[in-house]
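Justification of resources, computational component.

The compute hours requested in this renewal are based largely on the per-chain cost of generating structure records like the one below. Each record pairs the submitted sequence with a full structure-token output. That output is archived, and it is also reused by downstream analysis tasks.
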Amino acid sequence: RIGRIVAAALGLLIAGSAGPVAAEPEPGPPAGPAAEPRALTGDPVQWVRTLQLLQDRVAAGSLAAHESQPLLIARINADLLAAPPEIWGRRNNLRSAITFALSGGGPAVLRRLTARDGLGEPEATLARGALAYLEGREAEARRLLQDVDTTDLPPTLAGAVGLTQASLAVTDQPARAIGLLDRVRVLLPGTLAEEGALRREIFTLGQIGDLKTFEALAIQYLRRFPHSVYAGNFRQRLAYQLTQFDIGHDEGRFGTLNRILSELRPESRRDLYLLVAQTAIQAGKTAAALRASEKALALCAPGSAEATQGQLYRAAAEIVNLATFQSGLRTLRSLDRAKLTARDQLLLETALSTAGAIGRGLAGRSGLPEADSLSKPARAARDPA
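The structure output for this chain reads:
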């Protein structure tokens, strides 16, 4: 069964790729659960190229490719471990094995290779450094890999090593990490390596506060990889990073969000405005939450679940301002809880509880509610924070 699934994964590539791939195994008769998956044909270079073609389809949005990837990786890993010793006398095979390990293949093959003598350079250093990285020995990996010049390496290996070097540098040397990721993007356009490098670079720019370049690359990502399997995670992190830039502070900064989201279709734009508003409320950025929720509401159908979400986020931001306290509280009380997710229902209770605390603090002021006017569930909320 596993062999047939691997065959199907290769069939996906043949159907969706213009370039050559490793030969597809012939489907055999139905096998029992314990049957050994069939070996791939070809050599390590072809096997790893097959994996990369599959991963490039993941960047293009293929869920089938994404689901097939672990099975193909397991098959390639088994074939590399079973390969005869003489196969590692060829440099191309060594480089493919290192690329495979850094592309999701794991450390098993590298453990075997690094136990051999006579690998030659730079392959010996690359294999030891990659193994250290995959096993979590970051100090050793940094020592071995940080000064490796990838200029003369094949693009796929250079890209894999560059992504690793950037990961090792991002905390202490974010500017260097950005330069490394730039190079990966130039080397491997249209691939999963470029998609991953672009995602990482965007959030590294957020780390150093470069809003202008952050905006440019976020727009580039949404144009180039709108359907990537990882685009959903990217948008969640994008919403968080934008709140860290305090985009509600002024029109100029909020314009960054508007320009980025203009790349999306209206439904996607609405959803991301809602996500930004939700994230901003949770981070205490009420100005950003107000602006983003207003933008979202303009894109919501009246009475829809999305409109209820937008009203919740706007009202939760309004209750912390005396001028809008009452209107925000009225909105919170009027919301249809059935249209909210469990997470947003908790947010509603928290907002009502917070309004209760504010109301008690302002009790006796003209035109402001007394604490007793709040709903019993709100008074019972355990965590006003």
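Residues 16 and 26 are 19 Å apart (CA to CA). The chain has 19 helices and no strands.
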